Amino acid sequence: MTLLLLDIGNTRLKWGVWDAARASTVDGGLVAFGAMPHEDIETLASRVDVPVREAVGCAVAGAVTTARVEAQLDMLGVRCHWTHSPVQGCGVRNGYTSPGLLGPDRWAALVGARARHSDATILVISVGTAVTIDCLASDGRFLGGVILPGFGLMLKALEMGTAGLKVPEGELREFPNNTSDALMTGGALAIAGAARQMHERLGRLAGGPPRVLLTGGAAPKLALALGLPHETSDHLVFEGLLCIARQLGVAPPLTA
Question: Which residues are part of the catalytic machinery?
Answer without folding.
Answer: 105
